[in-house]
Amino acid sequence: MLLKLRLEAQKMSDISRRAFLTRAGALALGFSFPLFSGKAQDSQSSLKFKNSTDDDNRKSSLEYHNAYIEITPSNEVVFRIPDIELGQGIYTAAAMLLAEELEVELSAVKVRPALPSPEYILKGELTEITWGSGSTQKDWFPLQQAAATLRIMLIESAAQFWRINPDQCYTQKGQIYGPDNRQSPYSQFLVPADKLSIPKDIILKKKEAYSLIGKSQPRVDTPSKINGKAIFAADISLPAIKTGYMIACPVVGGKLVRIHDQQARQVQGVVDILSLEDMVCIIAEHFWAASKAAKLLKIEWDFGPNGMTSTDSIYKQLIQASDQKGIVGYSNSSVKIETALAATSHVYKMTYRQPMLAHAALEALSCTIEINDNHCEIWSCSQTPLRTQDRIAELLKRDKKDIIFHNVYVGGSFGRRLDDDYILQAVKFAQKISYPLKCVWSREEDFLQDHVRPPYLDQIEVGVGADGLLTTVKHNLVGPSIMARWDKSQLTKEGMDPDLFLGINTIPYEIPHYQLNYTRCDIDAIIPGWWQGNGATRNVFVIESIINKCAVKAKKDVIEYRKQLKVDARATAVMDLVAQHAQWDQPLSKDIGRGFALAHVFNSYIAMVVEAEVTAMSVVRLHRVIVAVDCGLAVNPDQIAAQIESSAIIGLGSALYNEVQLEQGKIVQRNFNQYRILHMNEAPQIEVHIIKSDEAPSGVGELGTIVAAPALAHALGSILNKQLYSLPLNKYLL
């Protein structure tokens, strides 16, 4: 019966969320058609097109092993996308890329989440993954190529049917046109096209012929998110499903001692209370019964050795570790860094302290799961779905093909869903029962169980020449390695985590001698996780703050100072553009500070100017943020601007207010009343200016966050007349 419902779900895509919730799970597995058999379906009603990896015309090393496109009898184009839609708009960008080369209207393309498959692993990638502002970068060439190839095959099919030369045919809006007013939709030629060989020579559209790419388009998922049809993990409903309210030990490494659950079990609607060695799950008919029972549940924990850890003790551990000799994680210098420093005219020393940060996504963690004799089926979100599928199969000791994982819409991630601990926890409880289980984490539990961005100390020595220009940086970094926890095989042979020099290895300046030394210092009381912008957010704060300090010491304008460090042409262009729109040469009111930052990361360039004020009540008022970005060819300009605006808001709020603190091993901040974000009335006016470029599209989603902290620190430092070395910045105002 469930299989029938799942097959019917594809035909019921217009059902409302209300109908979905009341129709016994009609849409429960609407995303689960098996598309990865490695060949087109035999059905004559549709054509599945598989892009060849042996295509001689392929020029990109970033490619899907196979890209699947389906054209339906109604002439719709369905693309099963491996990228996770986290709010960044990749469904729209992918639809635009396909529609452009396939010559169909954007509304004709329906993007659906793909099931995990090794065929979607990019060359050079560890696994199928969505991260690092990389979706459009990696989709750009393979999706264009796949769409163009299919279009050529359809033209060939039509030409054979009409018995004419393919050169006499052309395509427009999903139709094939030939001489003598011949016209037919693509769907008329699917079966013949399936029997054609894949062409080797593919000529893509010239950029000047684009009708969609480069022109702002509305997001394809906006209507469903407004009218309630978009399906998130917590929306899934199956026959006999129960809700599992998750409670874990609040201290990392702690264990469950005993549960006093007599009162909790008496709450109407409570079905059962289950436990693992470090977790409890209250199972009820609905969330409210479970949450009521949670308030009556008394749990005794053994917090273990981490039960006395505090924020202060963590930083003491980092400081102690800084005395140890680290490894050279990155160096561009041909001489010893100490020799290079000794040859400079002056050396500045400084220490930067960067705090732990929460992901604090709008949607708290959730996962729906059903386990039976035939399969284990999950609805949630994992940025590494294939890895998650493998781990579930190992946990359940089942064949991987029996693990069906559905990535549904998710309300933000910021790196949290690169880890799948919450999904594995749900599986452990679900295997104890005989009915489907929807596991939910309260907002407070989501904060408590977060894999926080770890804390770091950056000890810096910089040398400048007689002209005040920066020539040498000795950068000692102390802190945990996320990759060492996640997958040790990805460390360098010296033990360096590649994420820790992200943003340093692409500095847009000519700094002759830069050496990053890394001392690994694991913090047992936290689980370190990637955060917005990955390592670049942390590194760019340090690098840009150093350069701003050196410019001030040299009594030079910070933008002109950077130009004297021989930035490349693209970096110069974004600096000039942001300076123009910020009216950089015009003085501001004495009460307003102006800050600047530049970054080259994810193959993009971004420059930001922040104008801020500190009021008489020591409150920061953000006035304007001006951004110039060169992200290659702008696929969807409005969406790029929206991504820069939102990431800037995240970056500014985090730089100003955010820090995760520990007391007695527990995270103190457990909701947004304790973990401060910018309010709507605090948001500055933001201007985003996009450089016109013929370069391939590059990363966008996290750029605003990466430069926000150094730009704001520079602005506030100019008001306070001091260098600001630690985050969050509001500490300097207390």
UniProtKB/TrEMBL annotation:
Its organism's taxonomic lineage begins at:
Bacteria, Pseudomonadati, Pseudomonadota, Alphaproteobacteria, Acetobacterales
Question: Which Pfam families does this one have?
Answer: MoCoBD_1 (PF02738), MoCoBD_2 (PF20256)
PANTHER family from the xrefs?
Answer: ALDEHYDE DEHYDROGENASE (PTHR47495:SF2)
Q: Which domain of life is it from?
A: Bacteria
Quote the protein name from its UniProt record.
CO or xanthine dehydrogenase
Pinpoint the Aldehyde oxidase/xanthine dehydrogenase a/b hammerhead domain residues.
Answer: 227-305
